[in-house]
Amino acid sequence: xxxxxxxxxxxxxxxxxxxxxxxxxxxxxxxxxxxxxLKEANPDVKVLIREAQGVNPRAFVRLERGVEHQASLxxxxxxxxxxxxxxxxxx
Length: 91
Prior knowledge:
Ribosomal_mL43/mS25/NADH_DH, 2 helices, 4 strands, globular, Glutaredoxin, 4-stranded mixed beta sheet
């Protein structure tokens, strides 16, 4: 499954990251390069980006009926961030 083809059950994606921390570098790069295509392909899915100094990067995917899955993105490269989100969306 590609991030461009999210299942209908996915209602929201939240990304928590640090604006300057090295462990969030892959998440920042993912947002710069992949966010526009992700949002264009899934206009009904809310994508929330939360930045706070010193936080560990995490991803949250909310599915229908309020079911939520989360994963740590600490130190992951851009392609690994996409893979982690795909895995969360497919659970």
